[in-house]
Amino acid sequence: MALNISPEQLSVVSAQLFQTGAVLASAVGSWAPAAVPMPAAIDDVSVWAATQRAEKSIRFADLSVPGFEEVTNAATALPKVAATYLGTDGAGGASVDAQAANFV
Length: 104
Fold this sequence. Notes:
The chain is built from 2 helices and no strands. It is mainly α. It has a domain at 43-90. The longest helix has 47 residues, at 44-90.
């Protein structure tokens, strides 16, 4: 299996990941206040609905925030990967320094 790397494209991908992260954060941030459950009324259905909504809001935050962090981490690491690749590959190295790819 061969992997064709274009190091100059890694910076482009990095910029796209930063943009994607910003768009995701903006989209989630704009409706995040609506995800805060309203106080329950005294009837059983209102109490149940508020509880369910609170559980779903917490679950969504638990899943989405680490994802946003990983997008940013990858975007930050890709220029380092590109520099390492250029240095290793340009010098005729048999492998690329694995240290640069530790963002995964």
